[in-house]
Design brief:
The structure is a single chain. This protein is mainly α. About 65% of the residues lie in helices and about 0% in strands.
Length: about 120
């Protein structure tokens, strides 16, 4: 079996593991009262550059995997910065969502109307 085939198998297994974890977490049963309910005033977030930033990270990561030398799994000079940009974008997006949630809980957006 070639190195390329092993790489594709590893990526496929990793994708199946991630999808399995997502399925298990999302299909977990429980009482409706145990699930968090968004506070009044929750609305769609404003425009953000973070999806574009994460797309650039994924582009660099994919380019690092595609444009590699013989015998390498990835071009580390492209893949590592791509992974770093992707992780920073994910952390920033989760942080922004948490900040929005806390602001809404404390009433800065609580106008009483549904958006």
């Amino acid at each position: 079996m070639t190195d390329t085939a092993i790489g594709f198998i590893l990526i496929g297994v990793a994708m199946l593991v991630v999808l399995g974890v997502v399925f298990v977490v999302s299909s977990r049963g429980g009482y409706a009262r145990d699930r968090p309910v968004p506070p009044r005033g929750v609305h769609l977030p404003g425009p953000s550059y973070l999806p574009v930033l994460m797309s650039v990270g994924m582009l660099l990561l994919g380019a690092g995997l595609a444009f590699r030398s013989e015998g390498q799994i990835a071009n580390l000079w492209i893949a590592i910065p791509g992974l770093a940009v992707l992780v920073i974008g994910i952390i920033a997006w989760v942080s922004a969502a948490n900040h929005e949630w806390r602001d809404t809980e404390h009433g800065s957006h609580d106008d009483g109307a549904a958006h």
